[in-house]
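subagent[fold] <- orchestrator: predict structure for attached chain, return tokens only, no commentary.
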Amino acid sequence: MQAWGTVVTLTMLIVATVNVKIYERCDLAMKLEKAGLNGFQGYKIGDWLCMAHYESGFDTSLVDHNLDGSRQYGIFQLNSAWWCDDGVTPTKNLCHIECNDLLNRHILDDILCAKKVMSLRNGMNAWDSWIRNCHGHDLSQWLKGCNMQAKPDPKKITS
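subagent[fold] -> orchestrator:
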């Protein structure tokens, strides 16, 4: 009986890890472009890639713990106190989503929630990592080697 429990546990772990993804930069760029994020509120794919890199390293399964007891979930590190419900943190759940739904390879729900964050929190300024690492920087390197339509915005590139 114990062997059967081990098999079930291993099977569940394998299924759980198959559903997560650490995106390659260009794969994520194409997914973000396909979702219509290039130009959303004036931000380009380079902004999204830079932010996601510094937030999660493009890892859809990342959960980070904050000092206030809330947690950050998924590729965009969306906070459980505001944007999703983790069943633990008192939340506004402004995206009307379970936090665990932000931890898989299917990032359309993450994208929709991130768009809501941007609409309610002054654009990309909602992410401290974007302010520190991306704002005002040349973001063209984020698209180098990616075969896609999105191009860096020359107005946002500084020398």
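orchestrator: received. Logging for downstream: Helices lie at 2-18, 25-34, 45-56, 108-120, 128-133. The longest strand covers residues 63-65.
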